[in-house]
Amino acid sequence: MALIVQKFGGTSVADPEKIKAVARRVIECGKQDNQMVVVLSAMSGETNRFVDLAHQMQAIPDPREMDVLLSSGEQVTIALFAMAAKEAGYDCVSLLGDQVKIQTDTMHTKARIKSINAELITGHLNSGKIVVVAGFQGVTEKGDITTLGRGGSDTTAVALAAALKADQCEIFTDVDGVYTTDPNICTSARKIDRITYDEMLELASLGAKVLDIRSVGLAKRYKVPLHVRSTFTDTEGTWVVEEDKIMESMLVSGVTYNKNEARITFSKIPDTPGIASKIFIPISDAGIIVDMIIQNTRAGEMTDMTFTVPRTDYEMAMKIVEKTAKEVGAESFSGDPHIAKVSVVGVGMRNHSGIATTMFHILSRENINIMMISTSEIKISCVIEEKYTELAVRALHDAFELAKENLPIGE
Ligand code: ADP
Ligand code: ASP
Ligand code: MG
């Protein structure tokens, strides 16, 4: 008998009929001598609706209360799923994050899982029940509800698979696997059959939201093979696995975009030791993760500093920056939440030159201005105006010929 964890995302449980269909699918899998643990997201659109509601109450919603609100969407879907399974004649129990003791730190709205007590689930499984767990939520040591950050149900699923030593972890979604770029904005995107944890980590960190980055990190650490596949078809999806010899290293494996970023710039700050720490310590103390940082070299004693933060933290970051700007004697500061980061990713870039120049050439050919650039050995990212995101993604996907079947690196 195998133990299988299956996670279904928001579009898969978007309405009562879809929830019934998911229950049928899980039951079918259970009938093949499998123990089933199911993780569900909220119905699609619900979490966004909660975020909007919260902003109607408070400009910067209280993080603890925000989590009480955000976690409610998953409570609805797991209860409905359990009812659907029971109606079909199968025993099923729904469990919330605190019942499963998904213990997290106290960083509300982006909490990290510290431990899971799998005993309760194992007990239910052994008595023949399907166990359905609310994704995206946990509980602090003191008993406060937390959420794991947007897209966090993937992380719940992988964490449970690791804690239960599951034989398989399947992530069901509205596309049938991981593609060379978002198939919803680029029709020539190609499905990748197998991808390494490391490449998937890069794609996810740069915006490929098909898998939440933390779920990929956990899967890598605990060696949980992931199968990303469609809820609506039976086709084989994408396997996220450890690197093996058969895998071909691609020069460029994908193009990603991230619209969840905002830019902040300090203009004319003193170019003296300690300024960067004065700027970034209060931001990091607020739990805000800074992504790209650029400091200009200027003639004279002044410099500029530009960086990006998640758009969801933009208002909070600007409040902090307003204070810091006075403290460090900045001439001015500004922010822009309407930016996007477009990236080209591939482990094969390590040994190849010319990828960056091709990227810059393509963006300039499309008349897209590059505001910031950052590179690592396996990726190049450019910050551009948000409205050009789709255009940039399609042009880069074409330029790197990603629609073609595997293009291994030639010498
Ligand atoms: P779920 O609600 O099931 O968790 P998400 O919306 O979080 O689904 O993730 C699936 C979406 O990820 C797809 O609909 C697609 O638009 C987007 N996506 C972005 N990049 C990629 C990619 N490289 N491959 C597949 N899907 C991608
Ligand atoms: N419902 C949450 C969200 O929309 C978590 C998830 O779907 O993974 O972000
Ligand atoms: Mg998701």
What does this structure look like?
- The chain has about 400 residues and is of the alpha/beta class.
- The protein folds into 2 domains: about 1-175, Carbamate kinase (3-Layer(aba) Sandwich); about 255-400, VC0802-like.
- It is about 35% helix and about 25% strand.
- It has an 8-stranded mixed beta sheet with strand order 3-6-2-1-9-11-12-10, sandwiched between helices.
- Helix 1 (about 15-30) packs across helix 4, helix 9 packs antiparallel against helix 10 and helix 11 crosses helix 12.
- The longest helix has 16 residues, at about 15-30.
- The termini are far apart.
- Mean pLDDT is about 95; it is low at about 405-410.
- It binds adenosine-5'-diphosphate (ADP), aspartic acid and magnesium ion.
- Magnesium ion (MG) binds near residues 154 and 209.
- Magnesium ion binds near residues 9, 151, 154 and 209.
